[in-house]
Amino acid sequence: MLNLTGKNALVTGIANNRSIAWGIAQQLHKAGANLGITYLPDERGKMEKKVAELVEPLNPSLFLPCNVQDEDQIKSTFETIRDQWGKLDILIHCLAFASKDDLTGDFSQTSRSGFNTALEISTYSLVQLSGLAKPLMTEGGSIVTLTYLGGVRAIPNYNVMGIAKAGLEMSVRYLAAELGPQNIRVNAISAGPIRTLASSAVGGILDMIHHVEEVAPLRRTVTQLEVGNAAAFLCSDLSTGITGQILYVDAGYEIMGM
Length: 258
Ligand code: NAD
Known about the structure:
Blueprint: E1 8-11, H1 20-30, E2 34-39, H2 46-55, E3 62-65, H3 71-84, E4 90-93, H4 112-133, E5 141-147, H5 159-179, E6 184-191, H6 205-215, H7 224-235, E7 246-249
Parallel strand pairs: 1-2, 1-4, 2-3, 4-5, 5-6, 6-7
Helix pairs in contact: 1-7, 4-5
Bound molecules: nicotinamide-adenine-dinucleotide.
Nicotinamide-adenine-dinucleotide (NAD) binds next to helix 1 and strand 5.
């Protein structure tokens, strides 16, 4: 049975009720995990209020600001986990960013700063957060990140985010190789296209979703909760033999030749 009772899980990347991280947090909670939630703070505190109201029914025991471009916030997040929880079992890395200008048009026109920002937030953050989680995962652990098919195939408009996801998927393998001896597993879920705040920045996302609905074996795309179920599986004792993998949760689209 999928049971996460007694497990401390840090979930990053909830912005609203469409976020994939929200689907994951709900399923981890359902399986009994104790949740810590981070959010991306803004100057007016609007995001804090919005996310706090959303996650309240899941009774998170930690609720912390964590902009992955802010060293102090990152450090403070993991110090709080150490002081209040003592150990960490699960890390959900479910965040990404690229400027809208870089998610449409010609890839060759990507700016230096746009390229660096996309890779810093979307790829390097997994490496850094995993490095900080490592000493806290004293009883082993599971790290799960979110990727997309655009990291292995050239998908229209995905552009620099495809490079970020390719780096992310390779980071999963290097992290899995390093952390395996400590019984920390690292996997990625490659989700099918879902309408969210982040995906709305990708040019033509609705066309992509309609295409998937036409050709994927299941003739639909996936939901946040389906991704959440797969994440709960990867965090549970049902998947103790799995690490370094990219699990496609995409209604089968990836196998198709069109
Ligand atoms: P979302 O907009 O709900 O989530 C993206 C999150 O990234 C937000 O919570 C945002 O606050 C956070 N974020 C951005 N910059 C940050 C920073 N500097 N510090 C901390 N957090 C930051 O969108 P989503 O679609 O749920 O995206 C979650 C993950 O799923 C991303 O990695 C995305 O690439 C991946 N993914 C999405 C789809 C899709 O179609 N929606 C498909 C496959 C993979």
